[in-house]
C-alpha cells in the first residue's frame, strides 16, 4: 500500500510542477502585455491576482485531462503490485510529450496574443497549408525568438525535473516492503476510484449545471485580465471542438456576391469600403427623438413569450393582463418576429442586429467574436451598460460575450444568494427584477445614463410557481405565464417610484415564442411571433402593423434617442422604414412571410413548403413565382450575414467622425 501511495505522490508532484510551469508562461504573457491593463487594473492589484487564480483553474482542467490515463495505469499497477523501472520511464515520456505540447501552445500564444489580442485558436490550422510561408514568418520575426527560447528552456527544465523525480521515487519504492496482502488490493481500488473521480471533476472544472467554459474566466471590465485566466491549450481545444459541430458549418444558400447585391438593394445600402458592403451612416432626426436629458434604456427580454399568449392576439384565457394593458400604452408592433427559437438567437439579433443562423449559437465558442450593436453604440455615447440574467454567467457564453461586446457589468446566478436559486436556470423573475432596482438606482445617482438588459427565465421548463403566487388557471404551462406577467407588473410598480422612471425608455419583447395551440404548419407561427412594446411617458402610444424583427430593435431605439452612428448590420428603423416582409429561422428551417404568403425552407432536406394566408388561416399551395421574393429576401439576408461573420466584418472599424 505504501508503494502505491509513493507512486500517487510521484504523479501528483508532476501535476503540480507542470501547473507551476504553465503559470510561468502566463506570467510572461502578463509582463509582455502589461501595457494593455486599464487604469483600474493598474490601481487594483487584486484584479491581476484573481486573473492568475483563474489561470490555475483552467490549467488544472488541462492537467486533469493529461493526468487521467496515468492515474488509471497507476491503479492497475497498484492492484498488480508492479512498480518497476519501466513504469516510471513510461510516465517520464508520457508527461514530457503531453506537457511539451501544452508548453508549445503556451509559448506560441505569447506572440499570437500580442498581435491579435486573443488566445491561439483553431484558425492557426489554416496556416498549415502554407508551411513554408509560416516557417519563414516565424524564423524571420525576432519577436518569436523569445517564445521559442522560453519553450525550449522550460521544456528542458521540466524533462530534467521529471527524470530526477522518476529516479528518486523509483529508488524510494525499492526501500518499501513489497508485502501486499490481498485485502489491500481493495483499498487500492477504492483510493484509486476516488482519485480518478476527483480527476474527472477537475476536467469538468466546476459543480454547476454546465462544465467550465471560457466565459468562467471573465470577471471584470479589463479585457486583458479577462483573457489572461484562460489556458491557451483549453482555448485551442474548445475552438477546434466548436468547429466540428454540425451546426457551425458554413451556410450555402446562394452565391455570396449575388446575396450582398440583393441585400444592398433591399436595405437601400451602398456600403462603406472600410467597414462592410452593408454599412451606412445614420443621422437621427430630432423631430422623432425623445432625447431630452439622454433617456435611460431598460430592455426586458421575456422568456418564451409568444404573442399568442396575450389576449390582444387572440388568447382566450387572461394570462397577461399587465402586458395587454402595457401594449395599448406603448408603441407596439403587431407583426413582429423573433430571429430564432432559442434565447441566444434573440439576444444576438436584438442587441447586435444580426439574424440567427439556423441552429448555430454565434455567441458561443472559445474565440469571443466582436460585434458592434446597441450596447457598443450606447457605450460610445456615454451610457453605462448592465446585463441581468437569472442563471449562471457562462451559460451560452453570455458573460464573456457581453463583456467583450459593450457591457460594463454582468449580473448572474453567481451574484445572488444560493437560497434564491430554484432550479438549473437560477433565480425567478421577481427576484431578478427586485435585485435590479437598487443597482439601477446606484447608476442613476451617478448622473450618467444607463442601458440595462434584463433576461427573464420563469416561462421555461422546469416551471416553478412560487408558493406566494396564486394563479387563476390550473395548468403549469399557463400558471407560469400568469406569474411572469405578475412579476413584470411588480417591477414596473417599483420602477415607477424611482426618480429615473420618467426619463427611461422601456423595451419589452419575447426572446422567442413557444408552441401555443396546435401546429398549423411545419413551423407554427407561435414559435417566432412575439410582442414588442416600447414604453415611455414621453412617447405617444400607437400600434404598428408593418413587419419587423429583433434585428430592427437597435436602429429603432437609436433613432428614438437621436444618436448618430455607423450602422453595420441588418436592422431598419421601424418608425421610419417599412419592411415588405420578414424573415427568420428555427434550427433547420428558414421562413419568409408577408401579409398573404408564407414560405418555408428546410435546409437539411432541401424541401420547400408554401402557404397562402387568409385571415390568419393557412392553405397549402404549390410553389410558384409569387413566393420567389420571399425566398430571395430571406436567402440574401442570411447569406450576407454569413459572409460578414465569416470575414469578421461585424464591427464599426472606423469612427463615425470619418463619414
From TrEMBL:
The active site is at 343. Substrate binds at residue 460. Residues 295-563 form the Sulfatase N-terminal domain. Mn(2+) binds at residues 303, 343, 511-512. It is found in: Cell membrane. It is a multi-pass membrane protein. InterPro entries: Alkaline_phosphatase_core_sf, LtaS-like, OpgB/LTA_synthase_biosynth, Sulfatase_N. Pfam families: Sulfatase. Its main location: membrane. One of its GO terms (molecular function) is hydrolase activity. GO terms for cellular component: plasma membrane. Keywords: Cell membrane, Hydrolase, Manganese, Membrane, Metal-binding, Transferase, Transmembrane, Transmembrane helix. It comes from the Bacteria. SUPFAM superfamilies: Alkaline phosphatase-like. The chain crosses the membrane at residues 7-31, 51-79, 86-106, 143-165, 186-203. PANTHER family: LIPOTEICHOIC ACID SYNTHASE (PTHR47371), PHOSPHOGLYCEROL TRANSFERASE I (PTHR47371:SF3). This is Sulfatase-like hydrolase/transferase.
Amino acid at each position: 500500500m505504501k508503494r502505491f501511495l509513493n507512486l500517487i505522490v510521484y504523479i501528483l508532484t508532476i501535476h503540480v510542477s507542470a501547473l507551476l510551469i504553465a503559470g510561468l508562461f502566463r506570467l510572461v504573457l502578463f509582463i509582455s502585455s502589461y501595457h494593455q491593463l486599464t487604469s483600474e487594473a493598474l490601481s487594483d492589484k487584486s484584479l491581476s491576482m484573481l486573473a492568475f487564480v483563474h489561470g490555475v483553474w483552467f490549467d488544472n482542467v488541462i492537467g486533469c485531462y493529461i493526468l487521467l490515463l496515468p492515474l488509471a495505469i497507476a491503479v492497475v499497477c497498484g492492484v498488480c503490485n508492479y512498480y518497476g523501472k519501466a513504469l516510471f520511464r513510461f510516465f517520464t515520456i508520457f508527461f514530457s510529450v503531453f506537457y511539451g505540447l501544452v508548453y508549445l501552445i503556451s509559448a506560441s500564444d505569447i506572440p499570437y496574443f500580442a498581435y491579435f489580442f486573443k488566445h491561439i485558436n483553431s484558425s492557426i490550422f489554416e496556416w498549415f497549408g502554407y508551411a513554408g510561408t509560416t516557417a519563414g514568418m516565424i524564423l524571420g520575426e525576432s519577436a518569436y525568438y523569445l517564445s521559442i527560447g522560453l519553450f525550449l528552456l522550460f521544456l528542458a527544465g521540466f524533462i530534467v525535473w521529471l527524470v530526477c523525480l522518476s529516479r528518486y521515487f523509483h529508488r524510494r519504492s525499492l526501500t518499501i516492503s513489497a508485502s501486499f496482502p490481498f485485502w489491500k488490493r481493495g483499498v487500492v481500488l477504492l483510493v484509486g476510484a476516488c482519485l480518478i473521480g476527483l480527476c474527472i471533476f477537475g476536467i469538468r472544472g466546476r459543480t454547476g449545471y454546465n462544465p467550465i467554459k471560457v466565459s468562467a474566466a471573465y470577471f471584470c471590465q479589463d479585457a486583458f485580465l479577462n483573457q489572461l485566466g484562460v489556458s491557451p491549450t483549453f482555448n485551442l481545444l474548445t475552438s477546434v471542438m466548436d468547429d466540428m459541430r454540425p451546426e457551425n458549418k458554413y451556410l450555402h444558400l446562394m452565391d455570396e456576391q449575388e446575396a450582398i447585391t440583393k441585400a444592398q438593394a433591399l436595405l437601400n445600402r451602398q456600403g462603406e469600403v472600410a467597414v462592410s458592403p452593408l454599412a451606412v451612416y445614420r443621422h437621427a432626426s430630432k423631430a422623432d427623438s425623445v432625447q431630452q436629458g439622454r433617456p435611460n434604456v431598460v430592455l426586458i427580454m421575456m422568456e418564451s413569450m409568444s404573442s399568442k399568449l396575450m389576449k390582444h392576439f387572440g388568447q382566450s384565457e387572461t394570462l397577461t393582463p399587465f402586458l395587454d394593458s402595457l401594449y395599448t400604452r406603448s408603441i407596439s408592433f403587431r407583426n413582429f418576429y423573433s430571429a430564432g427559437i432559442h434565447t441566444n438567437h434573440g439576444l444576438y439579433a436584438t442587441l447586435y442586429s444580426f439574424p440567427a443562423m439556423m441552429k448555430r449559437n454565434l455567441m458561443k465558442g472559445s474565440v469571443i467574436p466582436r460585434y458592434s450593436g446597441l450596447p457598443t453604440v450606447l457605450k460610445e455615447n456615454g451610457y453605462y451598460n448592465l446585463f441581468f440574467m437569472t442563471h449562471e454567467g457562462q451559460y451560452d457564453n453570455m458573460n464573456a460575450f457581453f463583456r467583450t461586446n459593450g457591457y460594463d457589468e454582468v449580473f448572474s446566478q453567481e451574484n445572488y444568494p444560493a437560497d434564491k436559486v430554484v432550479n438549473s436556470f437560477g433565480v425567478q423573475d421577481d427576484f431578478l427584477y427586485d435585485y435590479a432596482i437598487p443597482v439601477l438606482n446606484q447608476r442613476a445617482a451617478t448622473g450618467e445614463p444607463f442601458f440595462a438588459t434584463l433576461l427573464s427565465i420563469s416561462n421555461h421548463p422546469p416551471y416553478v410557481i412560487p408558493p406566494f403566487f396564486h394563479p387563476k388557471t390550473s395548468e403549469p404551462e399557463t400558471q407560469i405565464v400568469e406569474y411572469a406577467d405578475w412579476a413584470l407588473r411588480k417591477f414596473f410598480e417599483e420602477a415607477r417610484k424611482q426618480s429615473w422612471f420618467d426619463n427611461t425608455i422601456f423595451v419589452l419583447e419575447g426572446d422567442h415564442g413557444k408552441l401555443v395551440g396546435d401546429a398549423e404548419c411545419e413551423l407554427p407561427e407561435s414559435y417566432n411571433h412575439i410582442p414588442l412594446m416600447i414604453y415611455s411617458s414621453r412617447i405617444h402610444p400607437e400600434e404598428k402593423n408593418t413587419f419587423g424583427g429583433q434585428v430592427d430593435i437597435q436602429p429603432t431605439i437609436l433613432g428614438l434617442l437621436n444618436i448618430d452612428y455607423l450602422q453595420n448590420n441588418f436592422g431598419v428603423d421601424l418608425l421610419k422604414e417599412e419592411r415588405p416582409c420578414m424573415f427568420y429561422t428555427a434550427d433547420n428551417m428558414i421562413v419568409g412571410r408577408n401579409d398573404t404568403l408564407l414560405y418555408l425552407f428546410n435546409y437539411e432536406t432541401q424541401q420547400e413548403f408554401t402557404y397562402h394566408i387568409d385571415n390568419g388561416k393557412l392553405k397549402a399551395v404549390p410553389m410558384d413565382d409569387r413566393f420567389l421574393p420571399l425566398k430571395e429576401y430571406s436567402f440574401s439576408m442570411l447569406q450576407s450575414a454569413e459572409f460578414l461573420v465569416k470575414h469578421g466584418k461585424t464591427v464599426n472599424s472606423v469612427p463615425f467622425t470619418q463619414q
